[in-house]
């Protein structure tokens, strides 16, 4: 089961490389990048609402779910502030913001991307402990949201003059780390009770929602202001329909 968790995490993380490849080998208009980012944001909002928070509430109740949710958001925000101040605040930007970042921002961009992916990967690994089968909706949601993340950031890196080795090294490394995080999440939570799994789901949901508000949605709104809301709703509906079909 741990190996399965690693493979599912790697599959979801590989979408980052796919998105980066699209941005590197094709000229993708910034508004299209933003639209895909908005769609991915809606997908993740739906997944954390109907997969993570619902499961956390059912297993742990409102109090523990709320505490975990806020704790996850607070933890992500605190670490994100540190990463941003070191040059990683534009890691998902598709425009020229990365070009204006400090020369030493490369490590911060990689650290920020890893920070964004850890909660998602842990959720994938933990989902195998709930019934013995991975949550297909969780994997699909993370995969669909990772494509625009890799696309947007790689587009910005390319405009900033980053090399192909740098771009694919960053996203390939993050994809591998996603598999490792899913593996560790599965191993660390094996044998734990439903209450702890519920808390992990709530913490991950808070961190993911904070990430969306801090990074993905601002990027989408910057380039596609008129249609960001509608596209985000479409992503939410797609993931919601997927969750009901899988249920």
Structure notes:
The protein is mostly helical. It has helices at residues 2-25, 30-88, 105-127, 136-159, 164-189, 194-223, 228-246. Helix 1 runs antiparallel to helix 5 and helix 2 packs across helix 6 (194-223).
Element order: H for helix, E for strand: HHHHHHH
Poorly predicted parts? 98-106
Our count of helices gives: 7
Percent in helix: over 70%
Shape: globular
Tags for this entry?
247 residues, mainly alpha, 0% strand, 7 helices
Summarize the entry for a quick read.
55% of the residues are buried.
List the helices and strands and how they pair.
Elements: H1 2-25, H2 30-88, H3 105-127, H4 136-159, H5 164-189, H6 194-223, H7 228-246
């Amino acid at each position: 089961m741990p190996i399965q968790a690693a493979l599912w995490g790697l599959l979801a993380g590989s979408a980052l490389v796919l998105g980066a490849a699209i941005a590197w080998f094709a000229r993708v208009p910034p508004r299209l990048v933003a639209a895909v980012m908005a769609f991915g944001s809606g997908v993740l909002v739906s997944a954390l609402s109907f997969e993570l928070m619902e499961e956390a509430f059912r297993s742990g109740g409102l109090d523990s779910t709320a505490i975990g949710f806020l704790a996850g958001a607070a933890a992500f925000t605190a670490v994100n502030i540190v990463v941003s101040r070191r040059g990683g605040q534009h890691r998902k930007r598709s425009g020229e913001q990365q070009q204006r970042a400090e020369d030493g921002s490369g490590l911060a961009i990689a650290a920020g991307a890893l920070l964004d992916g850890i909660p998602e990967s842990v959720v994938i690994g933990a989902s195998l402990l709930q019934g013995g089968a991975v949550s297909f909706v969780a994997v699909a949601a993370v995969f669909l949201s990772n494509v625009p993340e890799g696309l947007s950031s790689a587009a910005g890196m390319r405009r900033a003059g980053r090399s192909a080795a740098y771009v694919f090294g960053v996203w390939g490394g993050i994809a591998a780390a996603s598999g490792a995080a899913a593996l560790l999440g599965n191993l660390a939570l094996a044998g734990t009770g439903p209450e702890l799994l519920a808390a992990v789901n709530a913490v991950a949901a808070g961190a993911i929602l904070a990430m969306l508000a801090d990074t993905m949605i601002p990027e989408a709104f910057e380039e596609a202001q008129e249609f960001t809301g509608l596209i985000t709703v479409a992503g939410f509906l797609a993931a919601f329909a997927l969750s009901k079909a899988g249920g």
